[in-house]
Amino acid sequence: MSKFELGLGKKTVSLTLPDEKISKVIEGKPYQAITDIAAAARQALRNPIGVPPLREVVKAGEKVVLIASDITRAWLKHDQFLPYLLDELNAAGIPDADISLIVALGAHRYHTDAENISVYGQEVVRRINIIQSHAPVEEDFVDIGTTSRGVPVRLNKAVVNADRVILTGGIVYHLMAGFGGGRKSIVPGVASYPTIQGNHSFCLHEQPGQGISPVSGSGRLKGNHMHEDMLEMAELLKPDFLFNVVLDAEGNFARFVAGHWLEAWQEGCKTTAEIFGVAIDEQADLVIASAGGFPKDINLYQGSKTVDNAVLACKDDGVVILLLECADIAEPPDFSDWFNYENLQEREQALREGFTVPGFVALKLGLMAQKIPHIVVTLPENRDFIEKAGMTPVTTIEEAIALAEDKLGRSEYKIIVMPHAANTVPILKTPNL
User: Fold this and answer.
1) What does the record give under GO molecular function (predicted)?
2) Considering 210, 221, 301, 349, which has the largest number of Cβ atoms within 10 A of its Cβ?
């Protein structure tokens, strides 16, 4: 027998399973965390991938913009690496007065002054100008071309008019674009609303009524139309440099990648896949997945990463058990409101009329739950919401397993356990034919 302690909110749930039923326990790979952030940042900036060192890329007298993620990516810990980027620019003859930080809001809300400080640090806010790029403010954007798929590319004029553009951000698995970071600083980061909508629409199936695109998903780059469209947009801008971070499973800096906006980012994607991509020989009949506890299961929106990864490990005729406490089940409203539609067809139609990432996540959750039964161990008060999301709520792991066995309808079955499913992505070696 094997015993597991699985996170559920701020507590753990004990689970004991027969060894013969367990086909795999999926965990991220250990990776040496960066201990000297200053030295590692300088090393990346001075020995970049695919381009000369940053000091040779910029020249005195040039205006430089840094594109940085907003508060929804606060886990990047910008305040710990941005000062070294500024110092390197200073050493190249670019004073702080000639540097601006563009907050890549996309369509997210504006930051407050206090939030700028909390995300980027007091030193950065004191030293350089902060500009917020907010997609709905159409007059802030200018045309720079059109992609081969017909999407007009309008980017923030402060970025387009700069002499040098430096992308910053973090690389993680992304359920739409394959991987985050890199070109996502540009789209949706500093793009106009119509440009974002045009690009993100490639996550949906080409045929209305067919749901989401089969080529859009975690770790998927080749053939991913959204990603390929983003690459074209980035190529139109031709950013001069990139500095991206990769974190380990504990949220520590694992690697800094710097250099060419595409080549350096691709190297960072390899490291992300090395840490969080876990090869599996086959999918399981039953997948038991915990997000890893609070805050990764604070609501269903955050828990969606766990659901997506759990489904990747499950056979089409299998069942998934999800441990998601969801103490703030109704948050955020721009996600939870999508479950008020009568059916998935209406949800999809509304999404095609006005694309939002929360709407896409809600649609994907509904489609996954329609395909494979989802049993959610959660708080009793979440019952109505979980049912509205197309899932079956229970309050104990014992109840969940009994219900899963009933749904499977067979006594012989294999289990995959995912103790930190919010982070780990199963990679099937040989897909089922």
Assistant:
1) lactate racemase activity
2) 301
